[in-house]
Description:
Number of helices: 20
Distance between the termini: 29 Å
Number of strands: 0
Strand content: under 5%
Structural class: mainly alpha
Shape: globular
Helix content: over 70%
Order of helices and strands: HHHHHHHHHHHHHHHHHHHH
Amino acid sequence: MTETVLKRSLGLFPTTSIVVANMIGAGIFTTSGLILAQIHHPGWMMGLWVLGGVLALCGALSYGELGANIPKAGGEYQFLRDLYHPMLGFLSGWTSLIVGFSAPIAASAMGFSEYLFRALPAYGTWWTETAGLSSKTAGSLHSVAVIFLFAAIHYRGMKTGARVQNVLTLLKVALILGLIAAGLFSKSGDTSHFAGPAEGLREMTGWKSMGLSLMWIMFAYSGWNASTYIGGEIRNPEKTLPRSLWLGTGIVLVLYLGLNALFVYGIGPKQMEGVISIGGLAMEHLFGSRAGTLFSLLIAFALFSSLSAFLIIGPRVYYSMSRDGLFFRGVGRIHPRHQVPSNAIVLQAVLAVIMVVSGTFEQILTYMGFALGMFPLLTVLGVFRLRKRYPNGIRLRGFPAVQVLYALAGLLILGLSLMERPTESLIAIGTVLAGIPFYFHLSGSRWKVFSRRET
């Protein structure tokens, strides 16, 4: 008989690996230069990375409690659907489909191409001069190829995909630790780079820039909720799921602070401003052009881990939506041999490819960051509803201070980002609202918009 449900086969190590891999991706290796171009002060930048890490830990604590009590595949989709209304769950899944996973996959693939061509300039020149392609087209072709490669890997089953994911994550963490150790113990950097202008950011434009910068940082930290998306495939989810979130987020926070210290120590704030392939530039300054080439190449391939993780968890959201009758039926199909949501994986890859060819890296980053900031606010506040709905459920520490801190900070970030980049922010809002007519069409609902789902 053909299996129609996902199997619980993942323990703490692969689950934590997916969290770490999902978090460490294009964000940390590409945003610091963009952030310094906004705020011009390394001290402020380091402080924002710390604040982002604290907020991510607050989110992980909240999602840990939610996931322990509602251990199903789908993450936010399931939480919002069960605690609020099916339409909110659908809109979070809709946003995940268009933005939440497609855009990060595209960003990781584009980051790979950026680092690859920095490491191998002659290879990039061949594509532009011999093949006659523009540098953007050549980069897009490589990004598309990488997306389809990993879609094919994860199409062949969770067992194969998890093994590839574990290896890639271990290699990526080892690379980052090597980067930090080699860079900070070298004598080629300068600690004076950490000094900045004495005056604070007093004007409103400065605060808006900080809000935009923190939104980019929260994109880099996004993924602290990754294991909630595969809750239906985790063994002993009541304990394993929250532990994977805390452990994974804590590991990433430490690594991010180390990497940013390395960037500032090796390059200096002025030279960092606006640079996307920041890791390769740092190693070039510290150890010379050959080291810059080597580490740019290594970072390019390290981004595979993040892209791979997104291709694991994203399709599980659409699978859950389809199983609930809130998405196209075929997307909920599980492959009879490979036991994965195969159609959802293909759909995810195609949407990511469309994203690659439709915008610049910074536009995708801002659009994605704003869209990803909305539904976690409601989800974190859902802990209040969870405790009322399940009075005998699993309880984690920090309530309610953790949830209030996350929600207030999230609202402030979105408001400042909307003022700083209104076009991309409004497009993100429009993307969410565009899902409403699809919800009514797919669910068959007409008037019961505010009726709560029976649980």
